[in-house]
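#onboarding

Welcome to the new folks! Below is a worked example of what a typical request in this channel looks like: someone posts a single protein sequence, and someone else replies with the predicted structure as tokens. Don't worry about understanding the tokens yet, we'll cover that in week two.

Example request:
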Amino acid sequence: MSTTRVVAVDLGASSGRVFLGTVDGERLGLSELHRFANGGVTVGGTLYWDVLALYRGILEGLREGARVAGAPDSIGIDSWGVDFGLIDRTGALLGNPVHHRDRRTEGVVEAVLEKVPAAELYARTGIQLQRFNTLFQLVAATGSPQLEEASEVLLVPDLINYWLTGLAGTEETNASTTQLLSAAALEWDVDIAGPLGIDTGMFPPLRRPGDSAGELLPGVLEEIGLEARVPVTAVASHDTASAVAGVPAANGRFAYISCGTWSLVGLELASPVLGEASRKANFTNERGVDGTTRYLRNVMGLWLLQESIRAWERSGLRIEVDALVRDAAALPELAYVVDPDDPAYLAPGDIPARIAAACQAHGERVPETPAAVTRTILDSLALAYRRTIELAQLLTGRDVDTVHIVGGGAQNELLCQLTADACGLPVVAGPVEAAALGNVLVQARAVKAISGDLADMRATVRARDHFPVYRPQPGRAGAWRAAEARLTST
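Example response:
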């Protein structure tokens, strides 16, 4: 049996990775070809993504893939959601995409809700109300020279695909994060967009995971050292959609935490939940592979720790992450807790100082060392995961018997154990590269190297590796209930 080789490009908020995926019968392989840094760049008071550096890193990874494996059978791109590039009528990029953590959307949510009530917005789109959603970014950009000159809006993975193939499209799992897509009809909702002055005709036609996104342009082939035609496949281009496809769940009674810079916490459903209780709980209904719904909430995630480390290093401290987490593990649990979803933590800056201010405001003791701040962050994240999973079960009537943590957070043993203790459920940790594996599996199915549904894909992931299981420690449930009560009473 011949081996199918595909290249999966997985762009995260702090790094980009290019992987070679191999499928040989039931055997699934994944090896890293190239890794490069990512992050925001502030210029003139605006926070941008350096998308040209990302594209260069992708080309370097594709070049390495061509060197070690020749022409792949397919290439697929996934990334974070909501952010976009503006293309003019000649096909040129009108400027670097603005980062979703930029402050330009401050106050925009309130202005939008004066024109489109929150209940209507949720009933039509099913999307969590967050100020960085594409809808709010486009409203914030109204009247700007770039938007006035733009003919197309391309979400980040669609922009990369456009540069690779010359063909524009909008993949549906990422499209659903815009808060402009009808949850019922799976088409752009002009009744939402129109009153806000947003032209949904600027978004190219929708694609589904597994659809063709074209072939590499001759110039791209020359750049990476190939001559043969290379197909590009529209995968589940929102990285969480790819990560959920890569969850090694054995049945449908699971919750997932895709844990990286952001934590996406939720359940996989057959259809969206659009009721008022769901809206008030601020859950989102995003598209997944095979028409599934990712019913989830965004939790601030490891951004809190990553940005804290940057703050400490700016002050001259030398931080070794493994030692920091070990020191945090030696401290008492739940000595300090904060709400990680407080908007105060969204923008870059001195997160430890903001945590200290939140503790003071709520009558909590103030963590004074890096280890204590780290323990505060991890305890607070586990508490937020507990709250979100319990509420998701209540709102959907779906029982959960296992929590799967995938992504970089699966490597943090302390966070995994705290999550098991907080939720009172076993936690399966891994795979770390679930998004890349989900990306590979969708491509492999598109090129007929595998067949079957999501359950079959997940069986392939389970067969690939052993994943550690963290079980809740006895006698801890009361402490977590008390911490939740302490936090919500302030």
